[in-house]
Amino acid sequence: MLSIKNLHVSIDGKEILKGINLEIKPGEVHAIMGPNGAGKSTLAAVLAGRDLYEVTEGEITFQGKNLLEMAPEDRAKEGIFLGFQYPIEIPGVSTVNFMKTAVNEHRKHKGLEPLKASDFLKLMRDKKALVEIDSKLTNRSVNEGFSGGEKKKNEIFQMAMLEPKLAVLDETDSGLDIDALRVVANGVNKLKTADSSTIVITHYQRLLDYIVPDIVHVLYNGRIVKTAGKELALELEEKGYDWIKDENKK
Amino acid sequence: MADINTINKDFADLFNQGKQLLMEGSSEIMNENRSKAFQDFERLGVPTRANENYKYTNLIPAFDHPYNVNLRYLKVDVDLNEIFQCDVPELDTNMVLLTNGWFYGNNKQLLELPKGVIVCGVQEAAQKYPEIFNAHYGKYAKPGEDGIVALNTALAKDGLFIYVPKGVVVEKPIQVVNLLRSDRDLLATQRNLFVIEENAQAKIIVCDHTLTHHKYLSNSVTEINVAENAVFDLYTLQNQHLNSVILNSTFIRQDAHSNVLTNTISLYGGTIRNNHHVLLDAEYCENNTYGMYLMDHKQHVDNFTCIDHAKPNCVSNEHFKGVMDDEASGAFSGRINVRRDAQKTEAYQSNNNLLLSNEALINTKPQLVIDADDVKCSHGATVGQMDEDALFYLRARGIDEKEARQMLMFAFAHEIIEKIRVEALKERIDELVDKRLRGEISKCNTCAVACNH
């Protein structure tokens, strides 16, 4: 589904990612862990198409297409969803209007007619129930005045609306209390299909109790330095990241 | 190019030579004001950039042009009622037309106005209703302080007169359509007087339009007196072609417990200068002064506002927002006076600007003069670019860049539209602003509030 080969990325001339290789097959859940500043969020942003970052080398293909040539909106319509670490507040843009525009763009891309207003509202209701998001939140401007937990739930709600093939969840657990974490994780699990894949980016192991990964990678200093099964997450939780750092100094 | 002295001298000649025509048909009080104002004009002249209040708007190119001036009402060769027919049933208004500053002679009679409400031309009002007219005409505008107000008062012959008697509520908005329609370049002078009596209510929507492509300079002054406990709304939609200059001065006086909301929306026009003066002349007034400007090409807009808290316990809210693209330029000046005895004043002001290009320019100047010590006042001004993070967020959900920009611009502008207190008008303006921001309206030959012609 997703293939990253020798990806090098810089920002303002400083190299952040120094040759990433990653293969993700349909249906797989990958966790990317690592200490702060390792380049985890950079990788997520590059996948979604943020133009602050310069790809200096390497390639990314998504379902056989060259991802790096695509605008962010085209990547989204092809099925990539980025769950933001810091969802943006957009005063004056209603969540309803935002989602209606986005959903209809996705439908247009698939050659489908725009949803009728009544069908759209029904879809919203169903998805809100699925991810247990408070109805009031979607009546307001996008993320405006939301708490941290509400913002993250809203990300999962948007994911539910857009039904991506590949979800990239960037530190979706940061700042969440355990109840909100469960709601968010449940949402992600309910939305998972046999063909859809997930990349969970996290600093801590706790989220992975709820979203169980098939494969765990450790990103350190711009490179994937370790790849193993889900037991690696537990090991990291127990031992911290220092041993990874030490190993890579040698 | 003519210098300012030549321009001022040309007006002096016009006034002296046209004196007889100017006086003819005008009431005594208008002519008294006229003579005094002309002396003011001779002293002040057309304001130049040396005048601090006009620092950011150069009026010399606007005035340096051989305009025609109509000192008499000219019969219109077509039926403007036929040309303008409102086709939006949900925006049900009492519509009245003015042409080149004059009350249109063939206006349909407004049959649905409540008893006692008067809507007519200023000349007619001066003759038919002298007690009302003379009590208010020239009482609020300050020709001694601004050359273009002096010029208006010196040249004014007609305009719109609205009177709402004590206790009367005009439920349907009164829609005033100012048409500039000429076969020659034209200087139009318009003088309006609105009198809203005690406990009365009215909402007025003013639409400014150019119907032909000639160069226009429109210099209008509106005086408004809002008596005790009255509620008054004034919505102004400015939509002219790029070759036009709009000078629009409004003077509002409010009495105790009155509530006024104005919203000045500049959609299109070559050069626009709005002077907005509010005098809170008794206790417990509420004033809401809002405005929005959407400028591109080389358009220029300058909103000069002054809210004068003369008495204690009044509240004023002022908010102007602008979206500037291409080489558009603009200015906002917000003066708030809180006089010495105006304790417990609350005065809030903000001005936010979105610059879409590197060449667009805005000068914003809050100016608070506070002589009382127990007040709540705040002001804020921002000038910024499109929020790239928000743009990326929308795009990351599949919305293309153009549409995402549109959504953000619209959201920015919508805050001002939201303040409109006429639901149907709010929806119309939403649509109109959306179209304007998409570049689908360049100039508007049809009425901004969806009148067909």
UniProtKB/TrEMBL annotation, chain A:
Entries under PROSITE patterns matching the protein:
ABC_TRANSPORTER_2 (PS50893)
| Molecular function in Gene Ontology | ATP binding; ATP hydrolysis activity
Kindly state which keywords UniProt assigns to this record, in alphabetical order.
Answer: ATP-binding, Nucleotide-binding
Query: CDD domains of this UniProt entry?
Result: ABC_FeS_Assembly (cd03217)
For the ABC transporter domain, which residue ranges apply?
Answer: 2-246
Chain segments annotated as transmembrane? none
One of this protein's Pfam families, by short name?
A: ABC_tran
Asked if the record carries the keyword Lipoprotein, the reply is no
| Recorded family membership | Belongs to the ABC transporter superfamily. Ycf16 family.
Return the protein name: Fe-S cluster assembly ATPase SufC
State the organism named in the record. Answer: Ancylomarina longa
Q: Which gene encodes it?
A: sufC
Automatic annotation (TrEMBL), chain B:
Which domain of life does this protein belong to?
A: Bacteria
* Gene Ontology BP term (one): iron-sulfur cluster assembly
Q: Which residues form the SUF system FeS cluster assembly SufBD core domain?
A: 185-412
Q: Which InterPro entries match?
A: Fe-S_cluster_assembly_SufBD (IPR055346), SUF_FeS_clus_asmbl_SufBD_core (IPR000825), SUF_FeS_clus_asmbl_SufBD_sf (IPR037284), SUF_FeS_clus_asmbl_SufD (IPR011542), SufBD_N (IPR045595)
SUPFAM superfamilies reported for this sequence: Stabilizer of iron transporter SufD (SSF101960)
User: Which Pfam families does the UniProt record give?
Assistant: SUFBD_core, SufBD_N
Q: What family does this chain come from, according to its entry?
A: Belongs to the iron-sulfur cluster assembly SufBD family.
Q: Name the PANTHER family on file.
A: PROTEIN ABCI7, CHLOROPLASTIC (PTHR43575)
UniProt-recorded name of the protein: Fe-S cluster assembly protein SufD
Tell me which species this is from. Answer: Ancylomarina longa
